[in-house]
Amino acid sequence: MQVFIVGGAVRDELLGRACADRDYVVVGATPESMLAAGFRPVGKDFPVFLHPETQAEYALARTERKTGRGYHGFAFHAAPDVTLAEDLGRRDLTINAMARDEAGELVDPFHGQRDLQDKILRHVGPAFAEDPVRILRLARFAARFTDFSIAPETLALMRRMVADGEVDHLVAERIWQELAKGLMEEKPSRMFEVLRDCGALARLLPEVDALFGIPQRADYHPEIDTGIHTLMVIDQAAGRQFPLTVRYAALCHDLGKAQTPADILPRHIGHEMRSVALCETLSERLRVPNDCRDLALLMARHHGTIHRAGEMRASTLVELLEKCDALRRPARFNELLDSCLCDYTG
């Protein structure tokens, strides 16, 4: 039985980044031998065990075979004869397909260290195309490693996957999981740029994709394009290290501008209520947590009014505070103001 540290822990060590979680792959073991060594089974879809002392995850080396569309369409094979190279070969990106053995030696069959040095996000092999979640994961890594580029052949493969309809079979919970992680990265705008570049944004988040190309008044928004403005607002929230609730509100606050009648552009009269309706639709479809949804709805409905708060009479300002439930929910109201700050500075 051989144990290897794999994936993100190896990648982050080579980058000089801190890594809280360490994942291990065990080669040459069986579930019975793991149980005999005191490990506790936790995997539902494939054999994963918790170390009896550290509680770290140890997975048996495995291969996988595509059996259907979407994230769940896989059959897994874990056996003592599965090699480390076979296990690493099923992973998404070369920078995530490295391992270290118990002596500290690097195992790098797909040249992930070279791609780290060259700052390239590259898929390991054809198996990338079998799991549409990997498009979201790559986009999320682009938001984390902000100076990395995507290998041309990887981007071309992602575009083919979208054209083949693979992303249409992703379940809402998985989309939200990756979206939430991406929003919490260093530069979340890159995630949306990558998804848009490969065509996945229009399939997964059509409400957001529709914002690109919609003009705004240049005196308020020098960037003009509503989609670009939205990405700038999200990055403002990330730069200020605001929580997920604020970042999701930043994403949704101007959705209604995509439905502004063409004859009144670049003005967007009444876009707030259109944004509320689209935010409700998006949040319901992705099963967004209540705290994120509720703040996003408040932001969509009231951000225009809050930007004009300095011009209000005292009675009107009190009415706004009541509509926002500011006195009963002061913490949430502070997050609403943070969201509006990002909109103003973005």
From TrEMBL:
Required cofactor names: Mg(2+)
InterPro entries, alphabetized: HD_domain, NT_sf, PolA_pol_head_dom, PolyA_RNA-bd, tRNA_CCA-adding_enzyme
Top-level taxon of origin: Bacteria
Keyword set includes Magnesium: yes
Pfam families referenced in this protein's UniProt entry, alphabetically: HD, PolyA_pol, PolyA_pol_RNAbd
GO molecular function, one term: ATP binding
Keywords in alphabetical order: ATP-binding, Magnesium, Metal-binding, Nickel, Nucleotide-binding, Nucleotidyltransferase, RNA repair, RNA-binding, Transferase, tRNA processing
Domain named HD: residues: 226-327
BP terms from Gene Ontology: RNA repair; tRNA processing
Family: Belongs to the tRNA nucleotidyltransferase/poly(A) polymerase family.
Name the record gives this protein: Multifunctional CCA tRNA nucleotidyl transferase/2'3'-cyclic phosphodiesterase/2'nucleotidase/phosphatase
Species in which this protein is naturally found: Azonexus hydrophilus
